[in-house]
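Backbone geometry:
***
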Amino acid sequence: MNKWLLLLAALLASGAQAELRGLDDADLAEVNGQAGMSLSATLRFNKNPANTRCNVGGATGGCGTRIALNFNGGPGFLVIDNLSGAFSFDGALLDVVRIDSSGGFGTESAASGTQAVRISLTNGRFDNYRWTLAGSNRANPVPGDAAFKQTDLLTYQTNGQVKLQGNVYVFGVR
């Protein structure tokens, strides 16, 4: 029985034909999908507060995700703390563009004649978002750590939605 099925599959497959050939520039220009790459994502921070630290070691401001950055091995940390809420975007586009006056850039552009990566955000949203910018002497507080010190510099919070759209251009440096 299996031999007959294999023979039948081989006969059906022999009828299917495809051509594999190189494409010249004219044929390639007709191919769809030449406008870059589109991305969509939803990032949720602090969805489950039980998995975060809450006012540990004298830290203030509540519960949230913590990102601590240390530059050049220095003694202090730049901290994005109490990160909570959601950021989502639909249709972020990545594309390479030429920077010149014909592309809508005036002659005042210092980078005229160069190429840049354009990141276009057509529909970005922050939902009930919160973060605190701070300076700290430790990456993460430990319960009972009396030496832990953190200075909150700025707190941003929205109740509801903030919508974003626009372009960011990234230039290469030689």
Q: What stands out?
A: The chain has a mean pLDDT of 77. DSSP finds two helices and six strands in the chain. Residues 38-171 form one domain.
